Amino acid sequence: xxxxxxxLGVADVSLAKRARIIELSRxxxxxxxxxxxxxxxxxxxLAHQRLAIVDPxxxxxxxxxxxxxxxxxxxxxxxxxxxxxxxxTNHQFQTGSDCEVIAHLYEEYGEEFMDMLDGxxxxxxxDTRDKTFIAARDAIGIxxxxxxxxxxxxxxxxxxxxxxxxxxFITFPPGHLYSSKTGALRRWYNPPWFSxxxxxxxxxxxxxxxxxEKSVIKRLMSDVPFGVLLSxxxxxxxxxxxxxxxxxxxxxxxxxxxxxxxFCIGLKGSPDLKAAREVADYLxxxxxxxxxxxxxxxxxxxxxxxxxxxxxxxxxxxxxPMFLMSRKIKSLGVKMVLSGEGxxxxxxxxxxxxxxxNKKEFHEExxxxxxxxxxxxxxxxxxxxxxxxxxxRVPFLDKSFINVAMDIDPEWKMIRRDLGRIExxxxxxxxxxxxxxxxxxxxxxxxxxxxxxxxxxxxIDGLKDHASQxxxxxxxxxxxxxxxxxxxxxxxxxxxxxxxxKVFPKPAARSTVPGGxxxxxxxxxxxxxxxxxxxxxxxxxxxxxxxxxxxxxxxxGEAPAAIDPVTxxxxxxxxxxxxVKPVA
Length: 584
Description:
ATP binds at residues 229, 265, 339-340. Its EC number is 6.3.5.4. The chain has helices at 15-26, 81-87, 101-109, 205-218, 234-249, 271-283, 294-299, 301-308, 313-331, 343-347, 359-371, 377-386, 399-405, 425-430, 441-444, 451-454, 457-470, 473-477, 479-482, 491-503, 507-510, and strands spanning 3-8, 35-41, 44-50, 63-64, 70-78, 119-127, 132-137, 146-149, 153-156, 168-171, 176-179, 184-187, 226-229, 261-266, 286-291, 336-338, 391-393. It is α+β, with helices and mostly antiparallel strands. The strands form three sheets. Strands 2-3-1-9-8-10 form a six-stranded antiparallel sheet, with helices on one face. Helix 8 (301-308) crosses helix 9 (313-331).
């Protein structure tokens, strides 16, 4: 991941202003420690902090077209850049950077090229011919971007580079483009699922598998060492399996050999460490296992909140171990990793989806979850890794894969205990290959475990205890007066809010963070699915009472954890029970 900062229409073009922009750009250097660049054109400044993944020797930014009349600063990866270059036969490319193609596409097509890009990105492009500019962000919001206003217009990869100098700033919405010609944002990403209408396409297991394999393979584009973040859960295990199989089949086509490196972190004895080790052994990867203590995680909280720029409870819980792991990964010389974010949103993998009343509400909730990913898991995966100069790529959030997955009749995604379908059954079944297994059965059908839980249940318990020592009952009673916007409802939430406000004190900063009730990572709307949830609002998967195998203590009158409250049978089907095999 790189860091970008652009300031356009600057009233003060003094050397002091240039020095200030360089100073603010340095706040993003953790994202791009390999090189710094700055382009100045009259009253416009485009700065860049580079993390060199593709073409490390000649791909420094900002990037230009042939006569340097078009300038672009980019954070991201364009996976189909070679295909796009082949179409631009009248253009001469100066570097091997995948991002240079953006400058030439704009020269050829104007603003109407966004749908042609296959990748993750945020960028600002300046056309010096008429001094107009555009800014854009990828479809789902994998790469962060903020927009701010002071006496000028600002864009930045992270809030910390513009918050001090802007009176107002917002999270730049994913799938949007801003044009100075119109002075407005418009959505360029308009897939069929965005309307939340209910699809009716039958489930095709082989097509789903094929699309995911293509998504993983295209993300192995790299000129530097890479690996996979492996928690041992379904999503990361599938990513590792596909990547490992591809490296073996291409006989080391990667410059780093045909053995995949995998990484996992957890408290000693945690569920993730055990499961990840088993998957790594099965796939024969070079596995790196890291441990941390609850105290080490607590000690890192202020730094984590500074980097991820949120006070959302579940994001901070999961970001902290990921932040610690990324530091270890970077120390090994690895600069890029693949990760499993997005699957739970697309397939309804969170345990609260067990209570979805019908396929319509199930599908609408998955749409809401995908639309909000840039505020939660995408933000976490990007900023927790970028804090140490590591780039995270997310195969489940490939545009083509999402289109196929979200076009499936949601009846197939529904949790059906009578048919042996647990959460995310459609993707589990797609990779259930008897002849050449991708994963062991019990891993393929392992229950969903949120990252903040899987690293060790005592992690969350330790955070709650620590927050209770710093936030009194009287502080909670006055929370609505101290924090009238997004008022914290727990001592843990209050504690994170105090840290956030200390680092980002402006009202605009707190408005970039979402709020509302949630249980087991649900949206506020899905809390309505079960009346008991409103009394147990916690983002941990263990808050899904009656569903999670290690649920929190049940309140009086509720069925025991992991037992169907109607049939009194276990919610976990026998491995392989009721499965429909892919049809050739």
